[in-house]
Request: fold
Amino acid sequence: MLKTHNCGELRVENVGQQVTLAGWVHRRRDMGGIIFIDVRDRDGKTQVVVDAGRSQAAFSAAEQIRPEYVVQVRGQVSRRPAGQENPDLPTGEIEVLSDELVVLNPAKTPPFLIDREEAVDEALRLKYRYLDLRRERMQRNMMIRHQAVKFIRDFLDRRGFIEVETPILFKSTPEGARDYLVPSRVHPGKFYALPQSPQQLKQLLMVAGYERYFQIARCFRDEDQRADRQPEFTQLDVEMSFVERDDVLNLVEALIVGMVKTASAVPLAYEQFPRLSYAEAMERFGTDRPDLRFGLELVDISDIAGKSAFHVFAENVAAGKPVKAIRVPGCGTYSRKQLTELEEMAKEAGAKGLAWMAIDPETEEIRGFITKFFSVEQLVAVMERLSAEPGDLLLIASDERRIVHAVLGAMREEMGQRLGYKDRKELAFAWVVDFPLFEEMLEDGHYAPSHHMFTAPKREHISWLDSDPRAVLSEQYDLICNGYEVGGGSIRIHERWLQQKIMNLIGFSMEEAREQFGHLLDAFEYGTPPHGGIAPGIDRLVMLMAGEPNIREVIAFPKSQQAADLMADAPSTVAPRQLEELSIAVKEGLGEKSKQGMTQKLR
Ligand code: ASP
Reply:
C-alpha cells in the first residue's frame, strides 16, 4: 500500500507515530516558511504541515503543488497547538508534520471548486462527473446509497430471499412505457428490448418454485425525463409466493424502517405507515400520492354551498358535482394579485375558476366575491366545517369530482410549498391500497390498467369484470413518501383464464396475447402458486433519504434531462460498418443533428 492510514483516521492516540498518507490536495495555505495542506481521500481530511526547517525537500515540493494534485506524505502525527484545533473535523485535534512529500500525479485546475459547496451548472458537473463525484455532497450521497442497498440485501437474506439476476436483453412487450430496443445481428430485422422491469421473469421464478426472490434490478423506460425519472433506473424488485397483501406490506414496511434508520440523513416522521384507500387519498388530498408531512386536507362543503345563493355551486351540487375547500392558515391577508395568481394555477390544473374566502386576522371580517351569496348561518357552517380561524384563507373549487381533486390537490401542494411544510426534514411514508383495476376507458372501448395487466382483481369483484369493469378494485398497493410514489406492487393473477380475460379487456386478441405473452400464459398451466410482489425505486428512496431534490444527485453517472450522457457523449453515432452488420440504415442527417443539440447544451 502507498499509505499506512486513511485521511479520516488519525486521532490524538496516534500522536508520535510515523505515518504515510496519500490523497488529493484539498486546500493549500502558504504562510511563508510553512505550508499547510489539507490532504483528502474518501475517508476524510488531514492537515499536513510542511515546514522548511523540518524538511527543505518536502517544502520545495509543497511549493509546487496545487489543488487536486495527488500526493503522498510521510511524517509524524503531532497534537495541534492549543487553540488551533478544528472541532468540525474528526482529525481536527492532530496534524502530520511532513518529512517527505511526493507528487504522485499533478492535476489541471478543475473547472469548478471541489473543496466547497457552491452552485455549479449541472451540464458542467455532468461533463466532469468524475470531479463532481469527488465533492463531499456526492460522496455522502453515494455512501447513503451503498448503505441502503447493503441493508436491503442483508435484511432480505435473513428472511430467506435469494437474489436472482434476470436478463437485460429481453423481449419487447407492450406493457406501458416505450421500450429501448437493441437490434439483433444474428437475427437481422429482429430486436431485443431492455426490460422495463423484470415483472414477467420474477413471476416465472415463482412458477419455478423460488418462493422468495429479490434483485437490485436495472430497469429501462424510454420516457420523457423529469426530476424523478431517468432512462435507466434501479428498483428493488421483490416477489413472494403463498402471500397475501398484508404479508408484502408488513415485510416491506419493516425493511424501509430499518433502512431509513441505518442509512438516512432524514428521519422518519413516524414508524407505522398509514394505510389509505385510493378513494380516501383522493377525497382527502386530491391525489393518490399525497405528501403527508402536512394537512391542508380537502373538506366537502357541498351540503352547505349547494344551498347558498351562488348559482354555480347550487347547480353543480344538484348535478352531483361536489364543492370542496382547503383551509390555508395565515394567508387571509393575501392581496387580489396573489389570489389571481392562485386562480391562474388552479386553471392550469383544469379549473374553470377558483373561489375563496379570506378571514381578516384582526377584524375577523370575511372577504371574497362569493361570501355575499352565503347567509350568516351558512358562513358559520363553512367556517365550522373547516375549523377556520382569523387569518385563514379558504380555497374553494366545484366541478366534476375528478377536476376538483386535481385542482385542490395542486393547490394543496402549492400552499404546502409556500408555507414551508414541504421543507420539513422528515420522511412521511404511507401505503395506498384498493386502487381501481382500470384507470380509464380508452377511445377504442378498451381499458387501461391502473398498475399493470398482471395485477389481480379483488376476488369478490371478479364477476363485475363482465358487468362493470370500472367498479372493480384490485390488489394493487403503492408505497408513497413526501408526495412521491416510491414503489408499487400487487398480488398477481396466477390463473391463465383470468390473465387472458384481463388481456382481452385491455385490448389484446387471443392471438396477440399468445404471441406476446405465450410463455407466461403457458407457464400458468404448470402449477403456479398464488404470488405477489413489489418494486420500490432505489433512486427515489435514496434521493429522499439524502434530502436531494432530484435522482441525478444520487446516481453516480446519470443522464441529463435530455437523456444524454454528457461525459462520454452518449448516445453517439456509430461506424457505418456497425450498422451494416445489424442490417440497419439511419435516415440521412439524423445523427449529426442530435449531436449538435448535445454540444450546444454544454455551452
Ligand atoms: N414491476 C412493477 C413496476 O415496475 C412493480 C411490481 O408490480 O412489482 O412498476
The chain has three domains: 12-105, 138-276+429-554, 294-423. The domain at 294-423 is CATH 3.30.1360.30 (Gyrase A; domain 2). The mean pLDDT is 94. The two ends are 41 Å apart (CA to CA).
